[in-house]
Amino acid sequence: MVMMKSVVLVLLLQIYIVCTVRYQPNWDSLDTRPLPEWYDKSKIGIFLHWGVFSVPAFKGAWFWYEWKTQKDKDVVKFMEDNYPPDFTYADFASQFHATFYNPDQWADLFEASGAKYVVLVTKHHEGFTLWPSAASWNWNAYDVGPHKDLVGALADSIRNRTDIHFGVYHSLFEFYNPLYLQDVANKHKTQDFVRNKALPELYELVNRYKPDVVWSDGDWNENSTYWNSTEFLAWLFNDSPVKDTVVTNDRWGKDANCKHGSFWNCQDKFKPGKIFKHKWENCMTVDKKAWTHRRQIQIEDVLTIEELLAEIAETVSYGGNILINVGPTADGVIVPVFEERLRQMGQWLKVNGEAIYETQPWFEGTDNITFHGVWYTTKKQGNSTVVYGIVTMWPQDNRLLLGLPVTTATTRVTMIGVKEPLKWSLYKNIAMQIEFPLLPPNQMPCKWAWVIKMENLKNQ
């Protein structure tokens, strides 16, 4: 009885300590905050780049900057050929109608994709907000264009129709905001833009929409001290309405990149090529050339489902999450080829999701003994540990050689979606040889990438 009371007291003390932790506005303190479990378990998210840049739908989200500052010849010619000389970038906003925007349909698609979280670009570097921000007068989707709260509509649909976590992307800096440009001219001795625009928007997003992800960007020119990032994050983790569930990335200043944050992006399409000690995320695109919808997209620009699944397998096997971007049109449509990829991914995950969700890396790298690119994950199942091998190419002779697993007399091998166990043997005492099942096409568990499940390995 005394021992039981002691255990209870210790547990209560631990709970008390966790509940009374106050994170200080410095990186040393903020970096001690544990990563909420939901994020690591989720593995797969959907990224949505949507804004005024979706109206010209030419090149990408940096269209305005490429036109006016970089004088990109293709962008300049596009404007000269299609718009009058006095046309401004702001004139595009009235054409951002979101006519066919149906957030319920989006939510249903994301659920069908198997994604566990969604991150919507609520304001990119152009400064246009997709919600009626008090800090963005007449340059937001409520005052001009759709005349709707696009952020709130999607947040409501996702929460009402799915178990997906909702997140927001927010760019700290803006290309041509006068307050920002004045701070730059003052060599950042002033912070008028931060105090009057960037931070008010962040507080507004969190208090109004209660996102589980705050995905920051536009941080590369200044240190986090200019952005007052640590002050905001201390509030986010201590006092915000999502303090216990929210996660953030590392883009809070050029001194924070790949060093601080709940998870690290480090750079776009980041893949470390090894198991990373800190939680990381690979934000990438289905369109190989852009983050936004492009009217001139060609089918060869789009990742095949085989390429996408290989990207997922590699990312998860190294301990990362993958944030898969599709850019909606200005009308609010996710084009059919993007929808197809997301639904194909969902079909695959419906069969093979146990090898992705809630898993951990098993081995550093791919098993290339047969050059098939086998990516490994592992997880606990009951009292045992299971190892998964994600095979991105079906072996031509129906025999797969694996050099990493060490077998025992009780090793059991199955293919997820196939009832009968697979036969295996030792090949020249250097590899495990697995015989793939001979199945007609209509009995295949999936069309792309197959998962081998191994139990009772010696080195599991």
From TrEMBL:
A GO cellular component term found in this entry reads: lysosome
Tell me which positions the record assigns to the signal sequence. 1-23
Q: Which SUPFAM superfamilies match?
A: (Trans)glycosidases
Which terms in the Gene Ontology molecular function aspect does this entry carry?
A: alpha-L-fucosidase activity
Q: For the site May be important for catalysis, which positions are given?
A: 283
What EC numbers are recorded for this enzyme?
3.2.1.51
Please list the residue ranges annotated as the Alpha-L-fucosidase C-terminal domain.
372-455
Membrane-spanning regions, if any? 44-65
What domain of life is recorded for the organism? Answer: Eukaryota
Q: InterPro entries, per this entry? A: FUC_metazoa-typ, Fucosidase_C, GH, Glyco_hydro_29, Glyco_hydro_29_N
Q: Which GO BP terms sit in this record? A: fucose metabolic process; glycoside catabolic process
Keywords on record: Glycoprotein, Glycosidase, Hydrolase, Membrane, Signal, Transmembrane, Transmembrane helix
Could you confirm whether the keyword Nucleus appears in this record? no
Q: What biological function has been recorded for the protein in this entry? A: Alpha-L-fucosidase is responsible for hydrolyzing the alpha-1,6-linked fucose joined to the reducing-end N-acetylglucosamine of the carbohydrate moieties of glycoproteins.
Q: Which family does it belong to?
A: Belongs to the glycosyl hydrolase 29 family.
What name appears for this protein in its UniProt entry?
alpha-L-fucosidase
Species whose genome carries this gene: Magallana gigas
